[in-house]
Amino acid sequence: MAEPRPEQRYDPHEIEPRWQAVWANERTWEVANEGATLEGSYVLEMLPYPSGEPHIGHLKVYSVGDAIAHYHRRLGRRVLHPMGYDSFGLPAENHAIKTGVHPRASTDASIASFQKQFREWGISIDWSRELATHEPSYYRWTQWIFLQLFEAGLAYRKEAAVKWCPHDQTVLANEQVDADGHCERCGATVEVRQLEQWFLRITDYAERLLGDLDGIDWPEHVKTMQRNWIGRSEGAEVTFRCEELGIDYPVFTTRPDTLFGATFFVMAPEHPDVLRLVGGTEREQQVREYVSHAITESGEERGNAEKPKTGVPLGRTVTNPVNGEQIPMYVADYVLMEYGTGAIMAVPGHDERDYAFARAFGLPIRRVIEGPPTPPQEGGDEQGLPYTGDGPLVSSNPQFDGMHNRQALAAIVAWLDGEGKGHASVNYRLRDWLISRQRYWGAPIPIVYCERCGAVAVPEAELPVQLPEIEDYAPQGRSPLAAAEDWVRTGCPECGDPARRETDTMDTFVDSSWYFLRYCDASNERAAWDPAVLREWMPVDQYIGGVEHAILHLMYARFVTKALADLGHLDVQEPFRALFTQGMITKDGAKMSKSRGNVVSPASIVERYGADTARCYILFIGPPDQDADWSDEGMEGVHRFLSRLCRLAAETAERAGSEDRGPMPSDRAQGDDLALLRKTHWAIEKVSGDLRRFAFNTAIAAVMELLNDCSRLRDSVELETLRFALVSAASLLFPFAPHVCADIYDRLTGERVWEQPWPQADPALLEREVYELVCQVNGKLRDRVQAPSDASPDELKELCRAAPNVRAHVDGKEIVKEIVVPGKLVNLVVR
Ligand SMILES: [Zn+2]
Ligand SMILES: [Zn+2]
């Protein structure tokens, strides 16, 4: 083959800036809020945290989101696809401590680098709605939202045992402590402190956060993570009393049927009363040492049933409310503060961990539910292992003895309730959201403390409470803001007396819990948003981001949305209708990291191959929801594919010249023309279906297949057939490689691909082999339908359910099971 002439060579560095300039100058991706006639679609990737430069994970998530945005536009929707920056937070502040550079300077520099690269990648962003959470024009409304919650009683202050990072000198949310009890940010071992903190009452929403998961289109594993995090369990709250000190200790238990078997009482090391109970006693020193060691261990480690049990007696007793027995109190690390009230009644006869503890400490083990006889244990323990099954109650109160324990659950709770010693209760693992941070680089909490009036909201007209300029960011165990004396001193908004500002800043997860609302009405200076505008865009139709946000950001955003909806500020209960979580890009099987030296920077690959190759490759590498391993050869392969497509299109455009471009005479096509035409329609059908299910890798592979046929048949088909195939290839590949495809489309048609509707496959030309699918209901033949030989099990089920005689037999019944034998039959089991 002859050398391609210069105008036919694929030169991304000429093509890409040229199209980027068109999009920028014409503001192609901007959408207005008013005057819309088309259906709207809100496509959103999680906003980046601007630190340094974008990494390969950013390239992946925005390539995924952009493909969806383009696809939705070409389906005829008006697409909102904005961008912003989650720009408050610790890394910029830590950088400032190290270098003296103001966090604003390093953050702005990083944002500039992100902006530049997003433009170089050709991501179709509506830049008119750009925001950064550290801008006063944004955090003014973060503060406004805090005040809405404060006035509704959903933001409150209380003293609490908090996880404290001694290195970062700040409080951490439970979620920011890793499984080994280390700070997620710096790796330091986390300690516990008692401090006055601000909380958001997310626990009020536990039930709705749980129930509403059923109505959203999210990956099942993310829903499961949220369900587990919320951790709902039913049981009873029972009060144990320490008579000596006159203190009641409520305990949550899912097993009130075993109350008569409680032989000791255990408190979590973080329980605020542990040190009080031993204060001034001979046990104090030992307990103190135990507590400070225990809190450094992870919850997972502590909860591990296999772990040898440790603990210290507190030298006190509580009364078991069902039988009046005095049972000894212990502190032990296998009890977690996060669970229930941070104290448990221990029933060694029926619980594995209590049993292990009782054995280790020589405590009585009593069975109150009769089980099958167990073989005697080594060491002559006649009780045998703890019995965790069901059976009749024994050695309990005569009124319950003999009753099956499942029935006894309710009977005992009712009896306790009557005696005023307990009541039925639902427990959640979810805790209120601690949002106070003793750090500089965050949104100030808009509260003023007055001796006379207490905690007073800063009036709305005075927002934002601006972050003051300070010299010293170094943490000193209090917020760096406390050092800005002139800023701290203020007047009470209510009585005018001298007062002091709150010096804590908000957790940055507050900033990101509502940014998707602000995008809808980003330039509104009078309000956080206009509810009418929100009605047009919310909820987000497709949200895209990492699964690492499954329980943090994704839970907080749902909570804030619900709370604001309850307060009348918006109409939706769920912020994200559908969620897609992308997998990670690894190198040589390992996570990319500077320390491993295996980092592939997007800037360097875009510089070498162009953005289209980079974007296309990152989506071609594998199913985008899975992790995938980077390969330089794979990258080269995709680059060659785009080069071939570009060259063949350029040659074809030249051959076609300016001659009249009539519609393709498909009904007369024969031989190779018909074959290529069919291949083209096959690719249209395939890519459309793949796009709907995020199978971008197979979509790109289908265009590659089409190009192979174009190359093979180029000399044996009519020019119009070849042109149609190449135009379609460019049209289908545009969501993944927008610059080169816009260029090819323009050369071959003189038109703009992004203004064209998504191509439709002609069913008459879809060459799908079919077979006769047998449709059964409860094993009986009810219908036969034509099924494509490459249909997926889901498609087959759908075909079967739609068959007329199947419908007649299923109508009004519930389908409990669908059995698919591909190539043969589908059997619906109904009842
Ligand atoms: Zn830390
Ligand atoms: Zn006052």
Walk me through this protein's architecture.
By secondary structure, the protein is α/β, with parallel strands linked by helices. The chain has 26 helices and 30 strands. A four-stranded parallel beta sheet has the order 2-1-22-23, with helices on one face. It has a four-stranded antiparallel beta sheet with strand order 6-5-7-15. The chain has a four-stranded mixed beta sheet with strand order 11-12-10-13. β29 and β30 form a beta hairpin. It is globular, with a radius of gyration of 33 Å. It starts with 11 loop residues before the first helix and ends with a strand. The mean pLDDT is 91. Residues 165, 167-168, 183, 185-186, 188 line the site of one zinc ion.
Largest sheet: 4 strands, parallel
- The helicity comes to 25-40%
Number of strands: 30
Instruction: Specify the overall morphology.
Output: globular
Strand content: 15-25%
**Rg result:** 33 Å
Unreliable stretches: none
Strand order of the largest sheet: 2-1-22-23
Bound molecules: zinc ion
Mean pLDDT: 91
The end-to-end span amounts to: 66 Å
Oligomer: single chain
Number of helices: 26
- SSE-based structural type: alpha/beta
